[in-house]
Amino acid sequence: MTGIVVVSYRSDEETIRFVTQELSKVRTEHRTVVVANGSSREEAEALAGRLPGVTVLPAENGGYAKGNNIGARWLKEHLDPEYILFTNNDVILNGPGVVETLLEAAASHPEAGAVGPEVVGTDGVRQSPEPYLGLWKRYVWMYLCTPFLSRARKRELFRLDYPEKAGEGEHYKLSGSFFLVNTDAFFRAGAFDENTFLYAEENILSERLGRIGRHCLFCPSVRVIHAHGETVNRHLEARKRALLQYDSMAYYYRAYKGYSRLETAIVRLLFQIILLVK
Known about the structure:
This protein is of the alpha/beta class. It has 12 helices and 9 strands. The chain has helices spanning 12-22, 41-49, 64-78, 98-108, 135-144, 151-157, 162-165, 183-188, 201-211, 230-235, 238-257, 261-277, and strands at residues 2-9, 30-37, 55-59, 83-87, 91-93, 112-121, 169-171, 178-182, 215-226.
């Protein structure tokens, strides 16, 4: 039995499409839990009525990390599956066998706490895996250096071409849109950190898994297509979205990478100025 968690926020039609069309490609025995963020009990029951065999849990909109933890804890308490798949509802599985291949990779690499496939956007660009980048490099130097660097040099210096060059094996971060975790390792690591509302969850989980001697395994032999950010884009304008992402990343840098609160505040100010002049 494999557990599957889908967090849905005001996107019932997308969730129904995903569960009925995409999860039907999963051949291994599984149980799906949909966490309906921002939904009442009545709304969750109505969604469950359209998804036979799926557990729908109503929840306050506490964000991505909290929503996924709610689903994972329900699965742990009721079924205790060996593995849990976390997935967005805006993903397309590139044929059957995707989840089964990830399960085989996880079983063959017990040192891995998380396993993810090749994730490609609708534009054909790889979104995963990613390397670690420091705070200043990610949010300041990458933008300030742009006028003085060639495109090739910028891609090399800031490792922007990392996803397209990455091969199978251990990497710092997987895309949070679709990945499998070992249930025991996930909970021993402390599950997702609920101090973030949206963004930075994958970075933090990588750090938490590292603390218990586990890593993230990239498995490019299977692929999913991800319509990155479409749900979020409907609810947040670009600048607000960028600052929300920064605030989550700032928490990650402070809590897990040793940056000071003063340093993240200075970088936030500089990043706001950059957003205004972009």
